[in-house]
């Protein structure tokens, strides 16, 4: 069997006396678009912060491309491109200058790769404009280009559609599917909207109060409406 790109193994996070993440386990296959779905406060950002090394699990482990983030952090994290908070962009620089700046920090990026990524995220025409003239959707795509520059195996986006209009959401969805299906990149996104996850993801895990309630392949969900009922029931409380 092909090795999972992401493997959460009984991960728990406690802060003070509060259990924020409670023994969650799930795995994501290479090239899969996977959604972490749950209401505000469910623990999505905390889970993604642990995955990217911004926070340490209290118990359990996370493996990225087989490498433990606890024991082999450098090797594990080199596979990840992430946008956890808003992408760090300099608005007084052009899109291209932002990418060059970022490429210098990560080293191994050449001009061909830059051109390829700019085309992939649909910014070829605007790349020499200053970022302050960009729409939110364009900034998101520039952030995505940044995350993709070093050819990661995994891209992690925390609620990437927040603040985007429906057209921007549609575009982002199209680009995320494209990088997964054309570049074989594994995509992990979080959201509190089931409708959005249905359109984007191959599989989802439903998280509520730090616990995973259900893990589903999207094909099964379309056939079977219990998931939706389940989700509405839990968010009602
Ligand atoms: N640093 C922290 N200290 C204490 N509580 C926190 C901290 N970070 C998050 N929490 C709490 O953990 C829960 C999950 O938060 P979060 O992971 O941000 O959820 P989500 O991203 O799903 O909205 C919330 O109740 C939040 O208040
Ligand atoms: Mg969050």
Automatic annotation (TrEMBL):
Keywords: ATP-binding, Nucleotide-binding, Transport. Pfam families: ABC_tran. Residues 6-234 form the ABC transporter domain. The keyword Ribonucleoprotein does not apply. GO terms for molecular function: ATP binding; ATP hydrolysis activity. Transmembrane segments: none annotated. Belongs to the ABC transporter superfamily. This is ABC transporter ATP-binding protein. It comes from Heliorestis acidaminivorans.
């Amino acid at each position: 069997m092909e090795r999972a790109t992401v493997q959460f193994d009984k991960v728990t996070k406690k802060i003070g006396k509060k259990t924020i993440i409670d023994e969650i386990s799930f795995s994501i296959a290479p090239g899969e678009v996977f959604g972490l779905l749950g209401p505000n406060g469910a623990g999505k950002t905390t889970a993604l912060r642990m995955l990217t090394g911004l926070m340490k699990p209290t118990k359990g482990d996370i493996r990225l491309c087989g490498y433990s983030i606890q024991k082999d952090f450098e090797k594990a994290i080199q596979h990840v491109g992430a946008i956890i908070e808003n992408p760090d962009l300099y608005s007084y620089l052009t899109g291209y200058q932002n990418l060059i700046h970022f490429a210098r920090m990560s080293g191994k990026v050449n001009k061909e790769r830059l051109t390829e990524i700019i085309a992939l995220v649909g910014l070829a025409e605007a790349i020499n404009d200053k970022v302050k003239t960009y729409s939110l959707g364009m900034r998101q795509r520039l952030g995505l280009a940044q995350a993709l520059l070093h050819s990661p195996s995994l891209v992690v986006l925390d609620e990437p559609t927040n603040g985007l209009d429906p057209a921007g959401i549609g575009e982002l969805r199209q680009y995320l599917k494209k990088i997964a299906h054309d570049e074989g990149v594994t995509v992990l996104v979080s959201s509190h909207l089931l409708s959005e996850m249905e359109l984007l993801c191959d599989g989802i895990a439903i998280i509520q109060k730090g616990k995973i309630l259900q893990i589903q392949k999207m094909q099964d969900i379309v056939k079977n409406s219990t998931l939706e009922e389940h989700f509405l029931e839990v968010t009602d409380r």
